[in-house]
Each structure stands twice: as C-alpha cells, then as structure tokens.
Amino acid sequence: MRRLLLLLMTAVLMMPMGPAALGEMETGMRGRTRLVSLSLWFGGEMAPWGYDVTRTDAGFRLSLGGSEMLPLPEETVTAMETLLETYGVAAWDGFHENNPDVLDGTSFSLTVVFADGRTVNAWGENRFPPHYREVTQGICELLAEPARGSAAGAYQYEKEGFGGDFLLALSENGSYGFYEGHLSSYMGRGTWSRDGELITLTEDEETGYAMTNRFRLDAEGNLCFLAEGSDNFPCIRVQDGERFLRVEQTD
What we know:
Elements: H1 2-13, E1 37-43, E2 49-56, E3 59-63, E4 70-72, H2 74-86, E5 96-98, E6 107-113, E7 119-125, H3 132-147, E8 153-157, E9 167-170, E10 175-179, E11 187-195, E12 198-203, E13 211-217, E14 223-226, E15 243-247
Parallel strand pairs: 5-7
Antiparallel strand pairs: 1-2, 1-6, 2-3, 3-4, 6-7, 8-9, 8-15, 9-10, 10-11, 11-12, 12-13, 13-14, 14-15
Helix pairs in contact: 2-3
C-alpha cells in the first residue's frame, strides 16, 4: 500500500507547472572559456525536463526547473565549457527546425550567451543541429551526479501516521504533497523551496490549508522537522527534530 501511495503522489506531483525559463551562458570561443549560465530543456511524450546552470556570487548553481538551487563544482563547469567549445555550439545559433512528418518524438531548446555578447538560441523538434547527441548527452552526464544532491523525492514519517504511513513527496518542479494516513481524507499540496540545508514547504488557502513548515536536510538525506517557524500538519503534530526518512523508490 505504501508503494502504491508513493507512485500515486509522484504521478500527481510530476505535472508540469509551466515552462522553465531559459538561461544564458558566457564564453570565449578562443582560449579561455567562461560560462555565466546555461539552459538545456527537452520535451516530447513526457513532461518537459532539463537543467538550468547559473553563476552566482556564491559560485555556480544547478536547478532542475524548480526553486531548488544545488551547488555545482567548478570542475564540472570547466568540463562543460570545454564540451561546448569542442563541438562548436556557437554555430547552433538560429537553428529553429522541426519535422512535421513526425507526430511524436523529441524536442529540445538551448540558450547560451558568449563573452563577446553573441547569443545562441536554438531549438528543434525531431530535427537537430550537428553533434547534437554528443553535446546534449555530454551535458546530461556531467550534471547527473550533482543533480543527485537534490532534495526532491519521497519521504516517510519515522512514526505512525494517521491510520497508516505519513508520506511526503517533493517534486523536481517545485511542488509538494503529503498524505497523513488512511484515516485522513485530505491530501495536502503546495510549493517548496530550498536555501542551503533549509527546506520550506508552503501551502495557501487556494490549494488547501494556509500553512508553512520548515525542515533541515541532514547528512543522510532525511528531513528533520523544525518546530520554530512551522505551523505543523492538520492531523499529526510532528515534534521538533523528528524525521521524515527518504524512501528509495525501486522498480
């Protein structure tokens, strides 16, 4: 039953909340390359997914489309810069093509900005620029490991819920949901954000109860409830420091 509920919540939360904003990238095509930001997104039969990389005063950050900003190692950015220069991504600028004979398939969008002010805006639907596979697969492989640090996923309260498991799911698109147990008829929904190790869940009257709950992401990837600044949940009163344990979903 717990696995069924997790699958149900994940399916509900994975509905896209809108197109992700495309980022920018700054680079020199000869000699040193410097990345400011990059946005690569894919579409097709499933909901849009992709990556946004942004340079901030605190270093590079990676977003999976929601409000969570993950730290991105400098060496990962350097490898991405080399990949872009090696395959001449500057030549992709102005690539806007589609194949109307294919009803389904894959689409992509990529926006970059170079150090000299030139921009690259490219998108395609079942048509792709030269070295498309090498570039996109290379970027996805480089960002896969940092993306695993995301707090997005399913969690279970370490104690008994309201007549069953108390489940919490954080979606990559910035939405969340919870279900306190079989005796509750309410499934909460709202949005979540992350600032370092602080996770904040917000629900308003338009989606349900007006409430805010705060957690700390611990070293094991579990959520520790912070009573200070939290409104708590409708049926279960979670105590300060109690945990929601990350659930590894398997096939």
